[in-house]
Amino acid sequence: MLYSFTEVSWIVFQKVGFTMKAKTGVILVMLAAFVYVAAQDAEAEQNVVEELLVETLVKPETCSIMSEMGDTLQIHYTGKLLADGKVIDSSLSRDPLVVVLGKRTVIPGLEQSLVGVCEGQKIKTTIPPHLAYGKRGYPPTIPADAALEFEVEVMSLIQVTPWQKMVNDVFPLVCLGLVPTLLGMVGLYLYNKANAQRPGKKAKKRKNK
Predict the structure, then answer these.
(1) Fold observed for domain 53-162
(2) For the chain, first and last CA: distance in Å?
């Protein structure tokens, strides 16, 4: 079948036009996918926290006494997932939480954030996963490798007394030092007891002879 020049031109135009449209569509799809992936990566980077961040929201006019290890704090807090802001726990509807610094009663990141604060201070702390619940998470509330954000208000601060501090610092060391001594005394007692029994057995054998 023979086509006129006009018909051939129209067929070529249609094919070229279709091809260009197809290519344009593919390019647009790829561009949209690239933008989506870039947005997801940017959001993921924002949610990746590698170190503990502490921001002071409210600080009282006088802050002469600051918390140290061994002190007892009463705090109100609200904890959230950093990724989506979902509240995971809050003390606002109950009594303040009592935290003794150094006793590991809360996650490490929160405890570290509470060192160096004063009564009446309010802070916001961003806690990386390795100072929170790590790779295990806390199902079903906290997923694995989740960064957390806490807003904390220090309601009261009770300083540890010098005597308590000495006991807390020295007593574990004394106990650790006493362990070898006690083991040695037990070993010596058993050794002496074993030696004391041997002469009696020998004497009994002689009588039998």
Answers:
(1) Chitinase A; domain 3 (3.10.50)
(2) 135
